[in-house]
């Protein structure tokens, strides 16, 4: 039973020198978790302590059952926005009622994640190509960076996207709190310096300690610099939310909506960080980990959570090596909650903004974008689309844009499959592409055409036009036109009808259509559609060598 825990597998081969990195990374994750834990509950009208609970227990649940050594879970703005919409119908409810409903939603989301893991819905995340993932994670990083404007300036920035926050900053320039700006800039410069000199102690941890001590010595709060403020000093108790002032239908629909957002943004973020950090993401197991995290949150009065961009960014930048980071972060948050409340309340918010801004910059993959640019201009465009979606429309809309861009890219690739005429090289075995091998020559009277891709409803007209064009270009003595279907892995009924029409059109001009190396699934479809009967068994071949033997035996006039 215990061997099923992901943390047991994750700690296999654990090295003693990893412990230092895991502890410092865990402390850094805990330090930057405080602002979002305090701010996000207000979006859904929940008490502050619920955000703290939702930052501790999910880390434990994911560390035990989540497969990744790098990903961190926690509150997410997109998830909280949908949660707020679900709870909007409870405006007259007490805070306790809203907490119970949020906890019930977390349990339902966890159950949906586990069910999705069992039936393999994680495969949906495979629709995102690496260029789009690189663009998407860079877009998320830019969003995190821009999101720190409010923390640096002491302003309440309400705009989203890339440029609107700067325009709002310009309009509110006279309200900027310059001591906050100076502190944030100083802490950001310290982080850059520590990164440049490759400090053995993670920069985020140094900044939190230095900023906290400075706040206590120089009374930053008295000078108008925002600080974290007081936190609750009570740990959550295990409870099952039974008294829910939310209709069951609304609860289930709301859980589905929250799950969709959590699932989409969480798995896309997981794959994005996996591409950035060069680690493999098992999406079905990630769903199981997210399910465990949400169930742990719901059982201890928390709300739904997903993969946290900022906390994962901090973990990667601090060099965390295993799931121990999550446990250390959870323990640190618990200790902070119980014993360091007075010290935490003095932590200046601009310093935390500097930590998040530096982490975001480190995740903008300039080298990856350059590599995509060198490899394919078209794929670079899709990388920019993924980046634009995350920056301009938010993480959830960015997910939709990224998936849509990927599907468009796949369709564009498949709409015009490549083709090539094949020939022989004297004295050599096999067939060669005529346009690539200068020594290759077509077999007199025989045309062999290779289609490199599936033939489906959306590219049928193009493939038919290519086959007819290639047939028109053949010498007058050509009698056989054989389709090499070795690269055609899929056909549909529209393609079957097209091949039947091509067979009839070729027959009217005295050209016999044959098919070679047809895969089993397309063969069964063509047999059921009656196309193979029209072509005839004499013109169906297992490989191209059989084509040559039959052609030479029966002659081009057969």
TrEMBL record:
The keyword Transmembrane helix applies. It comes from the Bacteria. Keywords: Membrane, Transmembrane, Transmembrane helix. Pfam families: STAS (PF01740), Sulfate_transp (PF00916). Residues 436-551 form the STAS domain. GO terms for cellular component: membrane. GO terms for biological process: transmembrane transport. PROSITE patterns: STAS (PS50801). The chain crosses the membrane at residues 21-40, 46-65, 77-93, 99-121, 133-155, 175-194, 201-218, 251-270, 324-340, 346-368, 380-412. It is found in: Membrane. InterPro entries: SLC26A/SulP_dom (IPR011547), SLC26A/SulP_fam (IPR001902), STAS_dom (IPR002645), STAS_dom_sf (IPR036513). Its main location: membrane. It is a multi-pass membrane protein. Gene3D superfamilies: STAS domain. This is Sulfate transporter. The lineage of its organism: Bacteria, Pseudomonadati, Pseudomonadota, Alphaproteobacteria, Hyphomicrobiales.
């Amino acid at each position: 039973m215990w061997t099923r825990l992901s943390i047991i597998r994750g700690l296999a081969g654990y090295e003693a020198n990893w412990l230092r990195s895991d502890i410092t990374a865990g402390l850094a994750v805990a330090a930057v978790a405080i602002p979002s834990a305090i701010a996000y509950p207000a979006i859904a009208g929940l008490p502050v302590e619920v955000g703290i609970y939702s930052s501790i227990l999910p880390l434990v649940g994911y560390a035990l059952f989540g497969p990744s050594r790098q990903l961190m879970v926690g509150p997410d703005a997109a998830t909280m926005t949908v949660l707020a919409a679900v709870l909007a119908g409870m405006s007259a409810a007490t805070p306790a009622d809203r907490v119970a409903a949020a906890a019930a939603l977390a349990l339902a989301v966890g159950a949906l994640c586990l069910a999705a893991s069992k039936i393999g819905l994680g495969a949906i995340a495979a629709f995102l190509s690496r260029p789009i993932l690189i663009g998407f994670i860079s877009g998320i990083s830019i969003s995190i960076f821009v999101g720190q404007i409010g923390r640096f300036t002491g302003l309440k920035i309400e705009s989203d996207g890339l440029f609107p926050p700067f325009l709002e900053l310009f309009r509110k320039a006279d309200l900027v709190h310059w001591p906050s700006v100076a502190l944030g800039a100083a802490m950001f410069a310290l982080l850059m310096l520590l990164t440049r000199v490759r400090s053995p102690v993670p920069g985020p941890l140094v900044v939190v300690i230095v900023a906290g001590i400075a706040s206590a010595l120089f009374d930053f709060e008295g000078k108008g610099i925002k600080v974290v403020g007081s936190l609750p000093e009570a740990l959550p108790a295990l409870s099952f939310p039974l008294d829910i002032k939310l209709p069951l239908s609304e609860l289930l629909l709301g859980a589905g909506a929250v799950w969709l957002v959590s699932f989409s943004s969480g798995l896309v973020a997981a794959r994005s960080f996996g591409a950035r950090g060069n680690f493999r993401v098992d999406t079905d197991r990630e769903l199981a980990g997210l399910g465990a995290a949400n169930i742990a949150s719901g059982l201890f009065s928390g709300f739904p959570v997903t993969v946290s961009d900022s906390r994962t960014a901090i973990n990667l930048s601090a060099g965390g090596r295993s799931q121990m980071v999550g446990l250390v972060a959870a323990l640190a948050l618990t200790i902070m909650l119980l014993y360091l409340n007075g010290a935490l309340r003095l932590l200046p918010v601009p310093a935390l903004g500097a930590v998040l801004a530096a982490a975001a910059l480190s995740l903008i993959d300039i080298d990856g974008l350059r590599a995509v640019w060198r490899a394919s201009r078209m794929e670079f465009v899709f990388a920019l689309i993924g980046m634009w979606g995350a920056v301009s429309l938010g993480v959830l809309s960015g997910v939709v844009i990224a998936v849509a861009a990927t599907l468009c890219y796949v369709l564009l690739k498949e709409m015009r499959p490549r083709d090539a005429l094949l020939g022989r090289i004297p004295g050599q075995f096999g067939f060669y592409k005529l346009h690539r091998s200068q020594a290759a020559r077509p077999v007199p009277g025989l045309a062999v055409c290779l289609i490199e891709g599936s033939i489906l409803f959306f590219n049928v007209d193009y493939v038919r036009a290519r086959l007819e064009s290639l047939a028109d270009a053949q010498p007058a003595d050509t009698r056989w036109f054989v389709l090499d279907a070795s690269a055609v892995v899929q056909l549909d009924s529209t393609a079957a009808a097209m091949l039947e029409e091509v067979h009839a059109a070729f027959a009217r001009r005295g050209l016999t259509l044959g098919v070679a190396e047809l895969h089993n699934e397309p063969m069964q479809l063509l047999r059921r559609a009656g196309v193979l009967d029209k072509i005839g068994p004499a013109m169906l071949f297992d490989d191209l060598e059989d084509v040559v033997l039959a052609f030479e035996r029966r002659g081009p006039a057969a």
